[in-house]
């Protein structure tokens, strides 16, 4: 497995617009990408302008394919105006 964790800070007042677009991107990733196994979109009311993503892919190639999909490219193009900061970290699964 290949894990991707993303912390996003969105501009104050834009969460109501950002979150539906983000959850639609997650839904399409799970529905249309065989290499995408999990895509969680998480928030915390104590941090109203923060979103945390947890994504699992078969491997790095599946994640790279995700970045090339039409739905991701459309989301990425429109979401840039809403995002203040983004931290993306990736991890290779270690199986015993």
TrEMBL record:
Alphabetical UniProt keywords: Monooxygenase, Oxidoreductase
InterPro entries in the cross-refs: ABM_dom (IPR007138), AI-2_Isomerase_LsrG (IPR050744), Dimeric_a/b-barrel (IPR011008)
Superkingdom field: Bacteria
Gene Ontology terms, MF aspect: monooxygenase activity
Cellular component per GO, a single term: cytosol
Ranges of residues in domain ABM: 2-91
Protein name: Antibiotic biosynthesis monooxygenase
